[in-house]
TrEMBL record:
Organism annotation: Sphingobacterium oryzagri
TM spans (from-to): none
Protein name: DinB family protein
Stretches assigned to the DinB-like domain: 29-159
UniProt-listed InterPro entries: DinB-like, DinB/YfiT-like
Pfam families assigned: DinB_2
Length: 166
């Protein structure tokens, strides 16, 4: 995959995404592009390696998809499903069937779903109360959506460093 010359946010507004959510969509799409490029540098046999006991490349990619899924679930004011809890428990655990291709496919699909969902969010609802997790920590709709993007970007940075250490 060849790297686009400009970052996603520098390419202009995305169609059908409310203006106040453009940064969230741009950040998520940048995550998808960055992961694809970073995975090109990783040997398939090193996906689960943990240099200096940091999280593996596979964990970071799984976690990004999981965080996006969970934050968007809370944004819709839904509780996590049993499948989501099971996924959370498996993040970072070695599984022979998980490959670079499957990790990339899954995280990019999750990002596409999230960006599609952003198109249906009405800006006037962004400051509405939402609750996070079992403890029902108070937040807002925009807080959850922003966190999905911000947390994903943070793990891309960690993924980059982990890959360099490998």
């Amino acid at each position: 995959m060849q790297k686009e010359q400009r970052e996603v946010w520098m390419r202009g507004a995305l169609p059908n995404i409310p203006p106040l959510l453009q940064p969230v969509a741009h950040a998520l799409l940048q995550v998808a592009e960055d992961i694809a490029l970073l995975l090109e540098e990783v040997d398939e046999t090193k996906l689960w390696e943990r240099p200096n006991q940091v999280a593996s490349p596979a964990f970071h990619i799984q976690h990004i998809g999981g965080v996006i899924d969970r934050m968007f679930t809370y944004a819709r004011q839904e509780a996590l499903s049993e499948a989501q809890f099971a996924y959370l428990q498996q993040e970072g655990k070695y599984a022979a069937e998980i490959t670079k291709a499957s990790l990339l496919r899954d995280v990019q699909a999750q990002i596409r779903r999230a960006v599609d969902e952003l198109s249906s969010v009405r800006e006037e609802t962004l400051t509405e109360k939402r609750y996070l997790g079992r403890q029902q920590l108070p937040t807002t709709l925009i807080g959850l959506l922003f966190h999905a993007a911000e947390h994903s970007q943070r793990h891309v940075g960690q993924l980059l460093v982990t890959i360099r250490c490998l």
